[in-house]
Amino acid sequence: MEKILENWEVYHAIREIIANALDEQVITDTQDIQIIKENNEWHIIDYGRGINYHHLTQNENEEKLNNDKLIGRFGVGLKDALATLYRHNVNVSITSKYGVITLLETSKTGFDDIITLHAKIDETPNKKMIGTDFALIGCTDKDIEIAKSLFLKFTDSSILEQTTYGQIISKNSDISYIYINGVKVAEESNFLFSYNITSLTKQIKKALNRERTNVGRTAYSDRIKTILLACREECVIYKLIDDLQQYNSGLRHDELAWNDVAMYASKKVRDFKENVVFVTSDTAISRPSIIDEMKQKGFEPIVVPENLVNKIDDYNQETEEDSTPILTTNKFIQDMAEKKKYTFVDESGLNPNEKEIYSKKGNILELIGGKPNKVKNIKVSETIYESEIFSETVGLWEPSEGLIIIKRGQLKDLKSFAGTLIHECMHAKSGEDDVSRGFESALTDVIGVIVSKSFK
């Protein structure tokens, strides 16, 4: 007896009694169990069929093994519990319509030197009794509370969503709890939610041990992924989306490190946030002009891992043309390129003041050492983008055409025109975006050229 789960404490044993009562409630579809204290005795009461002595035989319970909705997987927890309680000097009295069961030590038949624990069965005081009453004398209130805390049923956690595979549960602390059919089997320090798995995989069934504690993540991670991929509730989706944005801060939870879950959250973003663009940390650092352009145009950049952006780009290529794509940096640039609209104005269509300023084009280019080789033409346009509700874009370098486009409004004065023209020439010369090292280097060079010419 001393060797029966010697690391079990009283609350472990109480957990098994509660688990058996809850299972009986499920099997018989009867009212909720009760856990009450009367006259310094704790009682765990169910309203099922009533326990009989044959329930104490050390055999696996086929009824429980074949029902995935039950907590008990082996049908041996009750015997372990009784041995543990006896070892800790907690007196047990089990009453049902079949009799009253108490415990006593006696010699094993034929082996006087071997002492074993036996069940003593007395006549029941109530043959019409419904259910079973486990009376515990000698356990503490704390033992009961700890045991109850191992069951989802007795916590104040909120169920955020019920799926076919299990429940997503709000966290009440920094620790997340993993439940299987309502009983806690593991803790996670960096999960976004707690979970109650109600549809068991073969891997979970195999991992469930006699103690039902410390089940490894490898046993349940696939099922949790399935639960998340089945979620539809807005409150859950929003939390996934918000957490997805924590990649750059290092505060992202482990669920969003799973590619399938991150991809699912990325797709769901479109249901709640229209103007979101997924970017890599490298893009955010090395291409600030693109990030600024996104923000100016009303888009929200979300920094995510590069492998997720690549996966989204692959998804966009594989989807139908009439499907709504998920915006990434590549898709954003592609869309912006498609939304350009030029309304070119010939020099003859300019007003006298504009003609005067535009005529200085050659002088301005001479200041920077002449027109860059890549520039084939410089044109003036009334518009650059199709929609003018976005922030003003006053100039643009089109490398594919070797064309610099200056917005007509920049011809209002020489300073505006010259600044825009030189700016776009530097893009042509460097082949770089704004604020990149290449662009800054080219701009530094041209400033040096202009200053040098001013001293001649």
Features:
4 domains, 456 residues, 38% helix, alpha+beta, 20% strand, Heat Shock Protein 90, six-stranded antiparallel beta sheet, five-stranded mixed beta sheet, rod-shaped, 17 strands
Write the layout of secondary structure elements.
Blueprint: H1 10-28, E1 34-38, E2 41-46, H2 62-65, H3 77-87, E3 91-96, E4 99-108, E5 111-122, E6 132-137, H4 141-149, E7 159-162, E8 166-169, E9 176-180, E10 183-188, E11 194-197, H5 202-207, H6 217-229, H7 234-244, H8 259-272, E12 276-279, H9 281-286, H10 288-296, E13 300-303, H11 306-318, H12 329-338, E14 344-345, H13 352-358, H14 361-367, E15 377-381, E16 395-398, E17 403-407, H15 414-430, H16 437-454
Parallel strand pairs: 9-11, 12-13, 15-17
Antiparallel strand pairs: 1-2, 2-6, 3-4, 3-6, 4-5, 7-8, 8-11, 9-10, 14-15, 16-17
Helix pairs in contact: 1-3, 1-4, 7-8, 8-11, 15-16
Give the class from helix and strand content and strand pairing: alpha+beta
Question: Helical region count?
Answer: 16
Domains (count):
4
CATH overall fold name of the largest domain: Heat Shock Protein 90
Uncertain spans? none
CATH architecture of the largest domain: 2-Layer Sandwich
CA gyration radius, whole angstroms: 37 Å
Helix content: 25-40%
Strand content: 15-25%
Q: Which word captures the global form?
A: rod-shaped
The overall pLDDT average reads: 87
Regarding CATH, which class of the largest domain?
Answer: Alpha Beta
Main β sheet profile: 6 strands, antiparallel
Span between termini:
104 Å
Q: Describe the strand arrangement of the main beta sheet, using strand numbers.
A: 1-2-6-3-4-5
The number of strands is 17
Oligomer: single chain
